[in-house]
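Workshop exercise sheet. Pairs work together: one partner reads the sequence aloud, the other fills in the structure field after running the prediction. Swap roles for the next sheet.
Pair: D.N. / O.F.
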Amino acid sequence: MLQRQINAPNKTQAVRIALVHELERNRQRAALRSDRRAADRRGEGRPARSRLRHEEIQRRDVGRLTSLLARR
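Structure field:
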């Protein structure tokens, strides 16, 4: 099936092409991660949003614990 999707002449070529594509995707993903880390170091990007989400979860959990303790 992979061989037909890639239009490769044989299975070996199909696997080789698929591996090359996967390696390229991994290189791009690594570059994006490094760009994201650089933005985080500069104070840009997602940290504020993830911090807000974390605080929201903490408030929710504290509310649940408070209600559980109040029932006792």
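Discussion prompt: Residues 2-71 form one domain. What would you look at next?
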